[in-house]
Design goal:
Layout lengths: L3 H6 L1 H14 L2 H7 L23 H11 L2 H8 L6 H12 L17 E3 L2 E3 L4 E2 L12 H11 L3 E4 L7 H5 L5 E6 L4 H13 L5 E4 L3 E3 L13 E3 L3
Parallel strand pairs: 3-4, 4-5, 5-6
Antiparallel strand pairs: 1-2, 7-8
The structure holds flavin mononucleotide (FMN).
Flavin mononucleotide binds next to helix 5.
């Protein structure tokens, strides 16, 4: 290992270091080795080819942008009306950081949480997202399969493309979400489906139904009924 003094005194070592830094920061290095590299891995620029390559969820967003039909993209990406809640949620999330604790053995950590008497491997929960077949033909079944593999909790929306029975058949931990509604018969029917599958928890989304202005989304031709809050 050369000392800094030797490096400064020897321009060729300095040049080699600069060259190495340049190569490592280059996308081609990433492509050759398959390793994520700093310059290539910034959330703004990278488009991962597989989910495993993605460093965070925001990179997957880029993949969705490239592959989804524009109206579906807008359906997912936009919040209601001016999107202020969505923007402030993101601002608050950005305040959080991972606290680095060096020299601590993290080879065996326990991230599990207990909710309503059941234990889950981590506090990551799949929030209810309706109509997932608009995004992928396998819709909620693909999501449920992925969640079940890791025993992560999924909350199935009452607005799913596949029935709750089909999603429950996959066998992972599953809660059921319903919107509040004045149509009690429909609510009772939905509830009976969840009961039949022994869903242990019912998540009630209380919303004010309104017609979104659509002004935030040039992709919407037809105005949509969207929840004002969840
Ligand atoms: C495309 C899409 C569909 C959603 N569908 C539902 C739904 O059917 N039921 C529900 O309670 N919430 C639904 N939500 C709200 C989410 O469950 C979640 O509460 C919301 O996206 C805020 O969480 P986030 O900040 O992690 O996105 C949906 C959100 C999106 C983006």
């Amino acid at each position: 290992m050369k000392t800094d003094k030797e490096v400064i005194l020897n321009p060729s070592i300095l040049a080699r270091r600069e060259l190495l830094k340049f190569i490592i920061a280059s996308p081609f290095y990433g492509a050759m080795t398959g390793f994520p590299v700093p310059g290539f891995a910034t959330p703004d620029r990278a488009i991962p080819e597989t989910a495993r390559q993605a460093l965070n969820i925001f990179q997957i967003k880029r993949v969705a942008r490239e592959n989804l039909p524009i109206p579906v993209w807008h359906f997912i990406i936009n919040g209601s009306d001016d999107g202020k809640t969505m923007a402030s949620n993101r601002d608050v999330f950005d305040e959080w950081e991972l606290r680095v604790r060096r020299m601590i053995d993290v080879s065996n950590i326990d991230t599990s949480v207990e909710l309503f008497g059941d234990k889950f491997p981590s506090p990551i929960i799949l929030a209810p997202v309706g109509a997932q077949q608009r995004i992928h033909p396998e819709g909620e079944l693909a999501t449920a399969n992925a969640a079940a593999k890791r025993k992560q909790l999924m909350i199935a929306s009452m607005m799913t493309s596949y029935s709750f029975t089909e999603i429950a058949a996959i066998g992972g931990p599953l809660w059921f979400q319903m919107y509040s509604s004045p149509y009690t018969e429909m609510m009772e029917h939905m509830l009976s489906l969840a009961e039949a599958e022994n869903a242990p928890v019912l998540v009630l989304t209380v919303i004010r139904l309104l017609v979104a202005t659509g002004k935030e989304s040039a992709g919407f031709v037809v105005k949509q009924i969207k929840p004002a809050c969840a």
